[in-house]
Design goal:
about 450 residues, alpha+beta, Neutral Protease, domain 2, seven-stranded mixed beta sheet, five-stranded mixed beta sheet, about 30% strand, globular
Length: about 450
């Protein structure tokens, strides 16, 4: 896990020699107090199985989630993250246990266990209902484009808990098994390839996805709608199937990224010296008109203006932005997804590295894009932010939800990228690269 810059630099030094609101049916047991920020110690998820019924445009999504948990000690109450969910039922696979759902404030739901659940492994199952937001792009959200409805997700940093009850902290890396029940004429995509599709009696189809590699909740993603795909073939050392996924009618507007992203992918994979770690890579353009992108493992999401442009509208600015953001998000597949942050105080290293690295890859790919001038401008913007009396440290302690959201700013991205570039200049490009490879 990305625990600190010090750990990265240790690897580099070795490489310098060649080498929610919830429905509750019971009050909390006496003396039991809900968490206020972080989940209590003593329980961790081992595996998730999630089934969701998603109809784009509808207000709600019904789901059931089974979580295999390992308990270090006896639990009278097991706490999970949940935000704006209605949990209707909970059970545990251990015979003779009664389970009651108890309220835990805005961000938590509790399972009161009678008698207490002993240490060891158990499976808990919860039925719930989640909102499909129309005025927010957090959690599960649904939007129209060209008269058609689409449903998508955005879980970083703490919005997976708006989609399902879970252990919504980045240190919990867990395999996920996802099943979506969706209208039969729509396309469903997720972090992994589709294993099977089956038409059901109610007019929906059941789409089962392959189990993921261990992922934190914030990197889980899925999307449903009348998507169309541009097949980019198989890329890289692992012959990874790669596609551009777009809303209906937009297939002709991705010619630049369809040419560019495979070239950047090959360059990025070569730098890391590790084959792409997931079973497929989709770049999906979601119907948002803002400059948005997210490095979900195997399913990178982009606001449409980043990757979609008619061939006659591919301005130099569009090409530079599309290339830089694509390189940034693909870099995260290794540095940020395969290797993840233990807690949000180190998200700066995740984002700063990808910012620095994307500029490096784009400049190497197309020197005529003159990214050097862009770096000077970005450094100046970081200095402007850094001279304020209110400026924070790059690696700032995160002790509240507000601290998490404050960590995604110019200090993290631009100042952090400048610091990483400084270390590379000091150590040397070749040993720095070997250190990154050793670290990963």
């Amino acid at each position: 896990m990305i625990e600190s810059l010090a750990r990265l630099l240790t690897a580099i030094s070795f490489a310098m020699v060649p080498l929610a609101a919830v429905a509750a049916d019971a009050a909390s047991p006496a003396g039991v107090v809900a968490p206020t920020f972080r989940l209590p110690d003593g329980a961790r998820p081992i595996a998730y199985e999630l089934t969701l019924t998603l109809v784009p445009g509808e207000a709600k999504a019904a789901g059931e989630i089974s979580i295999d948990v390992e308990l270090e000690s006896s639990h009278q109450v097991l706490w999970l993250n949940a935000d704006s969910l209605t949990v209707s039922r909970a059970s545990v696979d251990t015979p003779g246990k009664n389970v009651a759902v108890i309220a835990g404030g805005e961000q938590f739901v509790g399972l009161a266990l009678d008698p207490p659940l002993p240490p060891g492994r158990h499976r808990i199952t919860l039925a719930f209902e989640a909102e499909q937001a129309t005025k927010s792009n957090r959690g599960i959200f649904t939007l129209q484009d060209g008269g058609a409805w689409y449903t998508m997700t955005q879980f970083e940093a703490t919005s997976a808990r708006r989609a399902f009850p879970c252990f919504d902290e980045p240190a919990f890396k867990t395999p996920w098994r996802l099943t979506l029940r969706v209208p039969r004429d729509l396309v469903a995509v997720g972090n992994t390839e589709v294993e099977s599709e089956q038409i059901e009696a109610d007019g929906l189809k059941r789409v089962v996805f392959a189990t993921t590699r261990p992922l934190p909740t914030y990197l889980v993603a899925f999307a449903v709608g009348p998507w169309q795909t541009v097949d980019l073939g198989r890329q890289g050392a692992a012959h990874t199937p790669t596609r551009i996924v777009v809303p209906g009618g937009k297939m002709g507007d991705v010619s630049f990224v369809a040419r560019t992203y495979p070239q950047l992918f090959a360059q990025i994979e070569h730098y890391f010296g590790i084959p792409y770690p997931y079973d497929k890579l989709d770049h999906i353009a979601i119907p948002l008109t803002v400059g948005f992108a997210m490095e979900n493992a195997g399913l990178i999401t982009y606001g449409m203006p980043i990757v979609i442009a008619r061939p006659d509208a591919e301005t130099p600015r569009f090409r530079r932005i599309a290339a830089n953001i694509g390189a940034h998000e693909m870099a995260h597949q290794w540095f940020g997804d395969l290797v993840t942050t233990a807690w949000w105080d180190d998200i700066w290293l995740n984002e700063a590295f990808a910012t620095w690295f994307a500029e490096k890859m784009v400049e190497r790919w197309r020197p005529d894009y003159h990214r050097g001038a862009g770096r000077v401008e970005a450094r100046a913007e970081a200095i402007d932010a850094d001279i304020l009396m209110s400026a924070r440290r790059i690696r700032e302690p995160v002790n509240s939800r507000g601290d998490i959201f404050n960590a995604f700013d110019r200090i993290t991205y631009e100042k952090g990228a400048t610091v990483i570039g400084m270390f590379e200049s000091w150590i040397g490009e070749a040993p720095f690269r070997r250190g990154v490879q050793r670290y990963l």
